[in-house]
Amino acid sequence: MRICIRLLLVGALAFVALACDEGTAAVDGAIPDSAVTDTGLAPDATAGDSGADGRTDAATDAARDTAADAASDAARDAGRDATVAPTPQRIMCIGDSITEARFQHYAYRYHLWQLIVADGIDHVDFVGSKAGTYSGGAPTGGWDSDHDGHWGAKADEILGGGIPYGGVGSIRDWAPVHRPTVALIQLGTNDCRGGQSGASTLAEIASIIGVLRESVPNVTVLVAQVIQSRQAPLNTCLASLNAAMPDWAAARSTATSPVVIVDQWSALDPSTDLEDDYHTNESGGSKMAARWYATLRDYL
Fold first, then answer.
1. How big is the CA angle at 133 (ends 215 and 234), to the nearest 5 degrees?
2. 134 against 213, higher pLDDT
3. Mind listing the domains of the chain with CATH numbers?
């Protein structure tokens, strides 16, 4: 009997031990060692999904950044290649018969137009109340011949009217209509011939500039030191007038409306560049145009 009981106890203990071994194996199989993280927790399915989405988001961000960079480069290249349209320039040539010319002569205006065109500048418009030349004769086709050069005019007549030889109006009439952004002024020959002083002539030209600024406050004004004539007494007056111009201009020039002196006095040889005592031939007109343009081109 004792032997039987002992055998039963040994068998029971063996069964319990076997059951314990199997339970341990079952638990070990539920959480493999390879699945345990450093924190002791097994990663769940959500963590695995987040890793996949992260990779997708990174690829999307990279593609978006590449597209943005390409668009930025294209915009920069387009900006580099684009040209800003220049401001249209309305040029008014103001003066006497030297500006207007007569018969077959073009004066400087024709030659100046050709220089502008040759430089590929296409945003210029010559403006004024007149066109062509005095008494006609010079071809008007192929260039812009508008101007306000008036035969026989003095500065006071350009300012206040009373221009001889059928002249109509004054700068007070022309400026508001044509609104020049650039004015080229050559006046003084008839003033000196009429016995007027250089001081009075410059005062009248200053008033002309004032009228121009009323219409276009930022107008650029180029004033010529008047060309020589073939008459020595007249040249004495003109030389005195010209000598006073630089300081006079500096006192009236502003940052927004410059007044610039252009030396036409030394540009011509009266013995070869005039058709008579006062007016240019084609050689003289071409030389005047070159002097005007050397300064004018910086303002176009």
1. 85
2. 213
3. 89-299 (3.40.50.1110)
